[in-house]
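INPUT
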Amino acid sequence: MSLAMAFRLGWRNLWRHPRRTLLTALAFSLGVFLLIISLGLGDGMHEKMIETGVRVGSGHVVIEPADARSTVDELHYLSADTAAAAERLLHQADLREMVRGVAPRLLASGLLSSANNSTGVQVVGAVPDRERGVTLLPEKIVEGTFLEETGRTPSTVIGSALANKLGVGLGSKVVLMTQAGSEIQSQLLRVRGIFSTGMEDVDLRLVSMRIEDLQLAIQRDGAVSHLAIFLDGSERTEEVRRLVAQRIERGFDGDPPSVLSWQEAMPELAQFIVIDDAGNYLFNGVLLFMVALGVLNTILMAVLERRREFSLLLAIGMRPFEIAAMVMAESFLLTGVGTIVGLVLGWSLHAYWAIHGLDFSGAMDQGLSVAGVSVDPIVYSYLYPGRIRWTLIFVAILGFAASLYPAVRAARTAPSEATQG
Amino acid sequence: MDSVLLRIGWRNLWRNPRRTAITALAIAVGMIMLAFVLSLMAGMKRDLINQGTQLMLGQVQIHKRDYRPDRSIFDTVPLDGRALADQLLDRDDIFGAAPRVSAFGLVSSGDKSLGAEIVGMDRDAESQVTTLGRKLEAGDLPGRGERTIAVGRSLANTLGVSPGSELILLTQAADGSLGNDLYTVSGIFRTGLEMVDGGMVVLDLGVAQELLALEAGRIHEIALRSTSPARAMEVAAAIEQSLGVEDISVAPWQELAPQLAGWVAMSDSWMWIMYLIVFVLAAISVLNTMLMAVFERLREFGVMAAVGMQPRTIITMVLAEVISLALVSLLVATILGAPLVHWITNSGIDLSATTDGISMSGTVVDPVIRGAWAPAEFAVAAGLLVVCAALAGLYPATRAARTDPARLTRGEIR
Amino acid sequence: MRALIGLLLALALGAGIVAAEPSAPVMDDRAKEIVDRVDQIMRGDSSVARLTMEIQSKHWKRTLEAKAWSKGTERALILIVKPVKETGTATLKAEDNIWNYLPKVERVIKIPSSMMMGSWMGSHFTNDDLVKESRMIRDYTITTSFEGERDGTDVWEFTLIPLEDAAVVWGKVVLEVRQGDYMPTWQNYYDEDGELVRTLRFGAYKEMDGRLVPTEMEVRPVDQPDEYTRVLYQSLDFDVALDDGFFSLRNLRGLRAD
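OUTPUT
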């Protein structure tokens, strides 16, 4: 019996019980459909969280002094030479193609005062041209500009909540007190921009100014706290991190700076995503298990019903494996049709949500944030590359596993059963 | 229902054991999967809320009404706070009540000084409410009356202190004086939250009150643990009402951490969608199997009708069969499903091995997915599945009972 | 007197204005001269003062007795004498830094930038007020905004506008000086929108160590009208011999009022 024949027979057999076949195929396509949209929404939400996190934080990959992470003070700097050398590495052709932007930053903590109030802040010294287009703050400016003006007084951009707390607006002056070594330095700044990210902590605590102004204020000429590296999407993070780390290890004698991925820089977010993903996989696993069981059930029923038919076929000389092939073909067709329908529907909805997004804001009263990163209540579906391929492989294995037992069962039918009732 | 019919139904089931086994298995697997999913949902929700509340927040907090968000040290609860905490423990719905004071101050060691939040807490009371006491990397939280201090890991690194070192605290006391004292480091905690590990120090409640020049009854906050986080809202409302003090606010965690509440709501709605789909799949599976099983027997029903059996009797008999089947399924589901649910609720799935490169130790998020028992939800789900099975069985049976027996026996209806 | 002006108040009185840089924009020369003279009255190379500080806030009322030493604009030391609970607590200011000596724990603590806006000893002065004064030397442009009789006394009113790049939070500072004896009467602090934020009143003019000085000052935050901090001088000695070593961390410990 040819394969084509097995399929033709299988197809015909399926339509002997149209209701049963349709219900099973429906269940299967529902499973595949749901798998795709849940992967799409999950990936979309996670990617958005990662993007927000890295854009408000230290990039997909960060180069920083080796000892920067164990303490809370910021007295760890990359020297101007080290920072320049690290930047040169990033300009090598293969990296440049993957890297969308590199932003050198200088961090300091300080006290920001107006005539009315004062509060502790985290200061980020930045190069405006390097931030624009890659990081969040320049995009979230609601008033003024992102450090564009240079005047006699250094410019600063502050969050909307901080502006409220200090009672200042665009053009107001504020005094930043920072610790420069053992000395306290005061620096007058003009508020030239106000941003609003919707993240409480960021809007209340983060202050940005030009890196050279901050270097001057804390008397650290040319110092850089880290180099934030931004990529197009998070998928190639590990690849870039490894490449950069290798080159830095080769290129530096003595104490090389360390190279961290966003997962290491933001472990809370990384863990959250791992757990959330695992939860989704579990749900999907349950779902597909049930779908597969439905297929198994349907095919097995059909096989048991047709014992007489099989033994007849055996009696007229068909070989057991041919019978098994026929049953497998039946199951393959059933799952194939279910998969295609589920895939088409799932992909369509995914494509729609990729553009229009799914609004979850009805489910909650206010904004969300996880591990300090805000979550947009409108989730745009997104699938990491390979998701569809793996879905298909997984579903195929599942379909195969579900048909295995009925096929074996059918093949083992004794020819004598034909004559028994 | 006639006991005779029930017996017939039961016996009918075992006339074709293979068919019955497959059908019962389909229903049982549906029930098991629903139980598993419900357990996961309850567990994940519980863990999410716990991870958000148990470290420091507690499920309910009591403050003076104006205390949040400015946290002025003068805004103490306008009652004897310690007495109030003790008194709340008498309530059936309260497991733990931890009174606290808190202030901003300077932590200093050698020539290094850092600003930090100084929290005074009673170690024993706190252990009934929060898990900070279990996050100690070295040493312990200060015990009652001990002039010691516990600090976070990154703060300890920055100041270069370890248990046994001395630290000075400097803060504005409530009487206007400069509160200052010397403390020995009793322990170092690591919670994974940078805000806590790098910005908080812990004193014994009484010792902190002395530093802040607050009398023993004056406290800023009482954190409570009730029987379940799900009840936080009603517990908070009940306490606020029973206190009847206008100036005291009793807030559940949903109010204290709206971001967490929002996240729980979002993940809840997502899980219910998943659950609904799992249920639909289970229902389809039951429907499919049941329809097959009954349609196979249309001829049999036809014969019954032909020999004069009332349609009602036939329907009742099928119903008896379905109920017997459901009981068998429930038994199978319990036997097979209980170990699964037991495993997911007790052991859970440990993800720490699968997370390449990400250190999960010493962090807020527990890398284990665990379920929780949800008997009520499961009973509803199982009941609905049985109804599905009954409908799936009754539909062909009703049709069979009402149709011309002659056509049925010829097998003209499928 | 410098001990006070310099230490407690960041007044920008005198000391602040004297050394205004030649590069400063259009300056009312006579105004500068007068403010300079006011400052001359208030200052000596060094000073030793005994004073009382009354603090009235929403939550407490307390009185501190202290002794204060100063030298130039950069160095000052205050020792708390009463209440007993805080006896021996001392604050050292040297250039831009502040250290506190805490007798209870026998330790010296340097105030970090994050605490500079914190209250000094529970008063309405911040730690920053203690250090700001020396910087204000370079920080203001002075003009005469009023000249003539007010309440029967001839006065000048000077408006001090911070220079463009001065690290000063105020929008402007307005100061009134009596024409007859160059005594300051009040000084008001405004934010950039012109809202009054803090007021300072002088009074009880008396001769001490041969100089007429205001022996009472009172600061009030405008948004808390019932609160104030009042400083009263019992004695003031000028041009006392104090070497730089006196203003050292070592000397902070075991300092006595006598």
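end of record. Residues 356-362 of chain B have pLDDT under 50 and may be disordered.
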